[in-house]
What does this fold into?
Amino acid sequence: MEWQEISGGWVLIPRQPIGILHFLGGAFVASAPQISYRWLLEQLGKAGYVVIATPFINTLDHLAIARYVLNRFESILDRLQGNAVLPSRYLPIYGIGHSMGCKLHLLIGSLFSVERAGNIFISFNNYPANRSIPFVEQLKDTISVEFSPTPEETQELVAESYQIRRNLLIRFKNDEIDQTLILNPILERRFPQMVSCLKLPGNHLTPLGQELNWQIGEIFTPVDAIAQWVQQGFSRDLKGLKQEILWWLNPLVRKGKKFENNYSEG
It folds into this structure.
């Protein structure tokens, strides 16, 4: 299974697909999701999910970005279906976003008519421009710089118009810029009992992690010990994230299985 560039997006197609994931990454790493999120996305592909990752360049107009990535996704899907690359049977479609990608999926689910079996929001972030873009704070007295829609407008829009009923929210224990706890009650009020919220080990960059292959020399040194410790921590957090996503996508897989680490809901 190899990455394919199709109609401006990056696609993974397993041999026997069981679902489709539309992935959107964070603001400063979204231009190459097939690289920055490679390990996580490839693991989801190996589990049987078609991964369609649509790159984007961040601007102040988040609505325009949401419209663009949705158009790219639908063009790719139409091409895959038209060329009979995907099976003719129904495949559920899920949105999955990290950081700013969460906001884009919220806008898509609030403003456009889309069919989604559910959405997954990882490390939701909806800060204003002066907290999100370097040096903007220094310009606030000379020019007005803000995202469109603003964070407040986004929250109001989701509260009034968001249409995707089933949702998974994931935040990490060491993530200081996560705003999942703001989003959770908004979605709960809109769709009671349909929102799951998890707090997992890791930080804001955990979804970007890659498995490292640290080569130990003939003599085991303190540097080797530190490298192995760091590698094990990243690997454990990343694998835990992957497992929780797969369990939520297909709850029947979780039945009767235990994962080696404990992850708490919160």
Notes: The first strand starts at residue 4 and ends at 6. The two ends are 36 Å apart (CA to CA). Residues 60 and 147 are 5 Å apart (CA to CA).
